[in-house]
Amino acid sequence: MPKGEKVLWDISVYEAEKAEKANKEQEATEDGRAGGESSILFFGGKDAGKTTIICRFLDRDDIPKSTIALEYTFGRRSKGHNVGKDVGHIWELGGGTNMTQLLEVPINMSNLKALSVVLVVDLSKPETMWTVLETSLKAVNERIKQVIKKLAVEDPQIEERMRRKSFNRFALDHPDRDLVEPILIPFGILGTKYDLFQNFDSEKRKVISRTLRFVAHNYGGTLLFSSSKNESILMRVRSLMSHFVFGTNLNKAYCVDHNKPISAPCGTDSMNQIGGPPITDGSIGQIQARSPLDLWKQAFTSYFPQEATGSASISDDPAKDPQYAEPEVDSMRAQKDEELARYRKVSERRAKERAMGAGMGDGH
């Protein structure tokens, strides 16, 4: 190769390498991982096993306790010899669907670009499953939109970039790219207590599995079934968490047989493979859906009527929980409760006396 051509070749190689490096740095900046930090939020059903999943990922032997509100922990991963560590901030929203107002803490302007969310549902409780799915996803989506709106003041293109990135989870030739509505940040659904779920009859397992596949696929997420009593299944869950938290490669194992633990990484499923919603004989002619999601909702809730989750119960009150016992505070709380009870009795007695007085006045 002549000298001049060699120089031009070296320059072109240098420029190509420079451009590739710049692209990687830009991607890292947009991912929010430039500083080696990321965040993950677990939310969803009450007592669905979120704490257990987190403890297993962090190799902790702690005995899981019910999370009352919002809890935080973190994990580290070494990058190599004499190199800093990646840090994963792990949030868990407890209390089922009653604590969604606390989402403003783990979903914020500083971490949105490096945040993933995982919705945890109890496979053994289909009678509350759709309520958990709908309420939780709506709350998270609304919070994400609020944060993006604030970020758009300084970066008007941020929503468009995040939307484009969310669709990139699907292959360019995926047949459903124009049908899905992906959440703007990485997303997954974990169906827990598979050991109980596998004892359901085949038709129930089929309906639940296909419904969760549709919801995960529609929102651009990964769906995994999990059980704390099955190590091979837990390995897939750990792979998903490591992928979200540390950017490692995701286990792409694909299994959608309702007789086995479901594993459908984002972009691997399709509407055609999932099929139509489970229409029961009693619901034929009664369904009036405005969207595919609404159609699946009506079909699933017709098959599994949903129980009202209600508001927080007495047992959800931290003041009643032994693990938060504080003798001095509890004593003062008891005293105030007694004072309040006496005040109510006095108020009620006076109200009755005034009512009787008014009645006597009318009689005269």
Question: What are the main properties of this structure?
Answer:
364 residues; alpha/beta
Give a description of the structure:
- The chain is of the alpha/beta class.
- It is 45% helix and 13% strand.
- The chain has 10 helices and 7 strands.
- A 7-stranded mixed β-sheet has the order 2-3-1-4-5-6-7, with helices on both faces.
- The termini are far apart.
- 31% of the residues are buried.
Shape: globular
Estimate the helix proportion, in percent.
40-55%
Total DSSP helices: 10
Oligomer: single chain
Mean pLDDT, all residues: 81
User: Structural class of the helices, strands and pairings?
Assistant: alpha/beta
Specify the biggest β-sheet: 7 strands, mixed
Strand order of the largest sheet: 2-3-1-4-5-6-7
Rg from C-alpha positions?
Answer: 26 Å
Q: Percent of residues in beta strands? A: 5-15%
Low-confidence segments, given as residue ranges, are 310-316
Task: Count the E strands.
Answer: 7
H/E topology pattern: HEHEEEHHEHHEHEHHH
First-residue to last-residue Cα separation: 122 Å
Question: What is the compact description of this entry?
Answer:
By secondary structure, the protein is an alpha/beta fold.
Q: What's the arrangement of secondary structure elements?
A:
Layout: H1 3-31, E1 37-44, H2 50-57, E2 70-78, E3 85-93, E4 115-122, H3 126-151, H4 158-167, E5 187-192, H5 194-197, H6 202-218, E6 222-225, H7 231-246, E7 263-264, H8 271-274, H9 292-303, H10 327-363
Helix pairs in contact: 6-9
